[in-house]
Design a protein that fits this description.
This protein is of the alpha/beta class. It is built from 14 helices and 18 strands. The structure holds xanthosine-5'-monophosphate.
């Protein structure tokens, strides 16, 4: 089915993916594309509306991203946000001024009559993050919103359906920001709202049934949200022709391997092959303390195991990959330094004899993947599973990984998860886990001296894992976790809480 689409032109702002997620959440499919997209490509894309995102540049800067002015003559509604609005002003003869100081945070704003602000209070709060501002709107435009520092926080040319706003409606701190985006989509662009997750499941299953009829499909199942949802979707269409290989490397959390088997084989009835290679992975990590070396060995061994299994299965028609939309967005990112060698299944295609890769989730954001998972009847603990690194607990044990440390960590981590859930914090904290530090300290228990491991607790809030802040877990909850770990888990005698944000730290310790 052909969906109505909104085109979001990416000028490099930090909230760009958030704009796309909000638009989709409002029921309209959209794509985030580089601002360098040509006019021919834009016409061929045939959007019902175009959004210019924010960006780090100043419009007058040499080499600052621009748009082809003929975009304004297409007759397609345009909404420019932050840098996007300055670009509209600058391109059409208005003026942009450089402020002395950057304005960042909540601002009072006054809205006047506009389709964009329909149904919202005129005195309101918006979220600003800018230095430059539009000081004079282009001819034919009217000002529709003002703040203390921005004489044209909102402006538009009604007949041409071109709108600019200096603030960020996609950020939750902008009150009624969703309503502004809704108004643009439905009142200005005339969207009908045909992007609905239940329809997506039906459409995909129908499409996949046809494509996969009688074909053999192979999937590497990690138990993570993406592979779980991709496999379940494919299973709906391919049934027993789908073979899922689940590699248990022994670095999963307490109960996870059993859960994967019980949900996917037991509940869903998937053809799931579990490969128990726990001893083999421990052996490969013997004496290895360097984080990168650990990651590399685990990654390599994982691929080897998968290759062995794939050989037993023989030629397949399709290899499933759990690629999701943020992985495929072409962004303007340059070459960045390698901080960690991430473990993912990217190396698998080279070891499997297959005809084609199938990526049923490549158009979806993570929250959409979760919605699809729910639609498919996957249990909550699978769908809302927090992110978990491929190398698993092995990179949460500082120094050499041993069986005993794994057991200690698993138990401590379980208590942390249990108490966070009991305190009702599991939805608001992005990721939370325990770490075994390489430090041992002296303690006293029942009048005796102990010399045991220091366990660190890590809990962060984040939007996309690129940046993160340490979660302000209430003291009573931290206290409960600490007391329980010390009392219930052997070989731990001290608990510390990690209060570092990312950057400068990373979320994981290795
Ligand atoms: P860092 O530690 O780099 O982690 O701040 C950012 C996010 O990525 C997860 N992570 C991984 N995910 N394979 C993955 O699939 C990996 O090798 C890996 N290492 C880190 C981490 O848990 C956090 O959510």
């Amino acid at each position: 089915m052909q969906h109505e689409k909104v085109l979001i032109l990416d000028f490099g702002g930090q909230y760009n993916q958030l704009i796309a997620r909000r638009v989709r959440d409002l029921g309209v499919y959209c794509d985030l594309k580089p601002h360098t997209m040509s006019m021919d490509e834009i016409r061929a894309y045939a959007p019902i509306g175009i959004i210019f995102t924010g960006g780090p540049n100043s419009v007058y800067e040499q080499g600052a991203p621009q748009v082809d002015k003929s975009i304004f003559a297409l007759g397609i509604p345009i909404l420019g946000i932050c840098y996007g609005c300055q670009l509209i002003a600058n391109s059409l003869g208005g003026e942009v001024t450089h402020a002395e100081t950057r304005e960042y945070g909540k601002s009072k704003i006054d809205y006047t009559q506009s389709a964009l602000f329909d149904g919202i209070k005129s005195e309101n709060i918006c979220w600003m993050s800018h230095t430059d501002f539009v000081s004079k709107v282009p001819e034919g435009f009217i000002v529709t919103a003002t703040t203390k520092t921005c004489p044209a926080a909102g402006f538009e040319k009604q007949g041409s359906r071109i709108y600019g706003i200096q603030f960020h409606p996609e950020v939750r701190h902008t009150q009624e920001g969703d309503r502004i985006l809704y108004n643009f989509l439905y009142k200005v662009c005339g969207a009908k709202g045909d992007w609905i997750m239940s329809d997506f499941v039906e459409e995909q299953v129908r499409f996949l049934k046809e494509k996969l009829a009688g074909k053999k499909v192979l999937c590497a199942m990690s138990g993570g949200v993406d592979s779980a949802v991709a496999a379940t979707l494919i299973h709906r269409a391919a049934g027993d022709n789908l073979i899922c290989v689940f590699v248990d490397h022994g670095f999963l959390r307490k109960g996870e391997a059993e859960e994967v088997e019980s949900v996917f084989r037991g509940q869903i009835g998937m053809n799931l092959i579990k490969v128990d290679v726990r001893a083999r992975f421990l052996e490969r990590l013997k004496g290895v303390a360097d984080p990168e070396e650990k990651r590399k060995r685990i990654g390599k061994e994982f691929i080897k195991v998968f290759e062995e299994e794939a050989k037993k299965i023989g030629k397949v028609d399709f290899l499933v990959q759990g690629t999701i939309y943020p992985d495929v967005i072409e962004s303007g990112k340059g070459v960045s330094a390698v901080i960690k060698s991430h473990h993912n299944v990217g190396g698998l295609p080279s070891v499997v004899d297959f005809k084609e890769i199938i990526e049923p989730l490549r158009d979806l954001f993570k929250d959409e993947v979760r919605k699809v998972g729910k639609q498919l009847g996957l249990p909550d603990f699978v769908v809302n599973r927090q992110p978990f690194p491929g190398p698993g607990l092995a990179i949460r044990i500082m120094g050499e990984v041993t069986k005993q440390k794994l057991e200690t960590l698993r138990d401590a981590d379980y208590i942390l998860r249990d108490e966070i859930a009991k305190a009702g914090l599991d939805k608001e904290i992005w990721q939370y886990f325990a770490v075994i530090t390489s430090t041992k300290t002296v303690g006293v228990m029942g009048d005796s001296r102990t010399y045991e491991n220091v366990i660190a607790l890590r809990a962060v809030t984040s939007v996309d894992a690129m940046t993160a802040d340490w979660a302000r877990i209430p003291y009573p909850v931290l206290e409960k976790i600490s007391v329980r770990i010390i009392n219930e888990v052997p070989h731990a005698n001290r608990i510390v809480y990690d209060i570092t944000s990312k950057p400068p730290a990373t979320i994981e310790w290795e």
